[in-house]
Request: fold
Amino acid sequence: MQVAGITTPIEVYVASRERKFRINELLIIDDPNQGPLVGEVVDASSYNRFIPLSVEHAFSDAHVVESLKHLGYSIDEDEINIAKVKLMSETSFPVTTGSAVRLPAFDEVKSFLMKGSREYGLLLGEIKNTEETAKTMDENLKGLFYMFSEGKAKKTVNVPFILDLRSFHQYPHIGIFGGSGSGKSFGMRVILEELMRHQIPTVVLDPHYEMDFSSSQEQIEEAENFKRHFCKFQIGEHIGVDFLNLSKRDLLSLLSAVSPLSEAMSSAVEVLHRRGDTYLSFSSRLEDLAQALELGRSRIENALKQGLEPQDMERFKRMKELLENYQNIPLPSVQGISWRLRRLQISGLFSHDIKPVKEAMLQGKLAVIQGPIWLLQVFSTYLLSNIYRQRRDYKDGELRGQAQGDYFPPFVIATDEAHNFAPKGRDTAPKGIITEIAQEGRKYGVFLVLATQRPTLLDETVTAQLNTKIIFRTVRGSDITTIAEETDIKPEEARRLPYLPSGDAFVSSPLFGRTVAIRVRFPYTSSPHTINPIDEIKNHRLDSDEKLLSLISPHLPIYAANFVRAVEDINKDSDEKYEVRTLKEALDALVEKGRLKKQKSPLGDIYM
Amino acid sequence: MLEMDTSLKKRFEEAAAALKARLEKKPDRDFLRKTIVEKGAGSFLECKEMDSDMLASIVEKGGVAGVDGSTNSKGGIFPYVVTLQQALARHCNREEEILLSDAFSPLLFEKDLSEDDYRQYIKKNLSALEANAAILAVEEFKPRVLLIDGSLVRFKIEASQQWERLKQKALEHETLLVGVVEGISTGIISSTLEDAMPHFSYRAMDWEMLFGLLEMGEVLEMAPGLFKEGLRTCFARFSYDPKPIGIDMPEEQYAFLNQVKDLLFTLTPKNGRGIPLWLDIIDNKVRITDAMMEGLLNACLGEDYAEYIMAKRSKRAI
Reply:
């Protein structure tokens, strides 16, 4: 390998007859004047001068090439491999043409490949095309995890890509970009596994119900078990909002998450909600007011004049009072607030609180919050503001020298579909708190891991704060443009984005000062969604066939003459509700699949 | 220049018309083919592609090698020139090459040379160099077939000593010598057929007569005695290119023409210019490019001297 052609202080071409180059591999150029220079292959090509790409030339004549091979000459031997190599740091002079080029030993390029130690780092995957360099690596860095290739899990043979945990203090937030099927979810899973391994308190907002870490990957024998390191909470079932602690703003955003509030409704909530309200007190106030507005002042007064049961008396008095205070609020507004509140209540939101989440975090666990996206949006607003405030108060107190309140640890917030939580050009409930954390979280040790398939739709302030970006396959032009603007990704790499294989990614991090091409490791746990929907249909059908077969087999053979009896018997033994027609269809279907035999007889068909 | 001088335009048209008239006078293809056969000037043979067994039998007997040379002169106006020559021989089956090279300048000669003499010398020297490379190739590779880029006739004329040795060695080692001629410059056909085609009065070159005359994969074998003593020549078309090439063989080995023509046909890309690919590969390897000459000149002479002898002409900016 040697430097060929015209060189610059930034970029050179390296040619080799024997060795093929791979994009992103590191090479060392032994410049006689400037010493060893480290460069990265940004473009690789091969050329055979006897097989030019031209319509006028005839060297694609396969027969002749084949005949030459029989005579002992293989045209492939005349191939020349060319690599475009970008130097890691600019040199004072252009590189000397003809300088020898070699593969680096690990120690020579360690500073470019590895920041931080294995003990304090997230092992995200391997750096692509570093096998040769990895051979000279310390033993304790070799084969740290598994890679998935050609349907099998194999130990990595490349240099591991380690994201230094301590660097979070400097570069706190991570963005994960990539289209569906690009390996983005796998990447997220790997990051979360690593966070669990280091017992970093983490909150995961999981709109897809996929963040479960209880089933280990079957292909890995020594798969780590994360069962004890995470808790899964469903909003309304395990956790919820403590109504008593709701501020007016929280309540407004909760209600508007159900369905947007009109201006009249918002101001009505502002007036009607009082400090110290419970769900009960607030909702009954709404109901009373609604009824009062419906009845009108005179009817309430009339009712009060007539003798009433003491209980009703009390109510009518309340209604009268409410009417006097709030007679300007239109009835539809009150009713609108009322149904929104009821919907939240039915979802179970108000019957729980966020204590379990905080407990999990204090134990250094990963708390997965699941729920439909609309509920997740509101709930996360409440949850994130709450825990962020708690952490901030603790830290501020500590800084002021008056440590007050209980300890609350630094933590990580992770979510997929981040553009739903902090969208560009549109307000959502959680946007405020996410922007705040993006801008100030570093000070308090609160870090974000935001994944999205549409970086263009993510709020720009947030995007700008994502220091480390992991970019998977992206096809959309506008997203590629956004990525190119927001990262130090090179044009050659941006061009490769639409074609990255699933699981391959570019990591752009200020820590490395360049884009590193990685392949994400094979997660130790598997997502509940990985079963192919087509397989699912097939399996389901097989299952139901089995079920039906086991149901009818005690009643075989079934004669057409006593079909009605058979239907009755089968229905009695099970909860099914077959009719003669449907059972006959089901039996015929089984006959078609060869699971059952059908015979003609003078008395009609016999199924056996 | 857009408005062409009318008198110039007229003269140009006349000249072009002369070329065209000559083409139009060319006898009809079928007539020509018939006449060639009838007058006993030659006969048409068909080529067959060799299969891998046949190729394997050639490999068994020693395989195929090729020889080609290249020459390049650089510098200023005569005699401020340096000439570099190379001849390369390579065997299909072997890594090592035989590379002979020579460099000289008119200034090296004791007596004054004219530019024409120098040109003659260059030609002769290259032939000798190639012939020597061929001799070494026969001795070292002992190939069954040695393809030589260019006619064997020029060896016989320009480097007769080496040619005799080459022939002797080739017969000794049973190596078939085959000259592959890209640019045919003979005019045998029209002189032989002069009587049969009175209206075709001028002496046409052979390539002109044969242009489009041969089918793809066809060889025109010329009757003995029409060529230089000791050599036999035939014309062949191995690709879709209608211009034929020439094949030279020593009289003594002419019996193997059949095998040789099939081999050449097999090794020639059908869409190419009709030269066996192996010779093209060697040509590519041996070629001395201008850039290479310039680099050598700058390196050996120093850029200042190189600049000093450089002709003004080569500095044209537009």
In short: Residues 533-607 of chain A form a domain with the Arc Repressor Mutant, subunit A fold (CATH 1.10.10). Chain A touches chain B at residues 49-50, 57-61, 63-65, 67-68, 70-73, 75, 78 (CB under 8 Å). The first helix of chain A runs from residue 62 to 70.
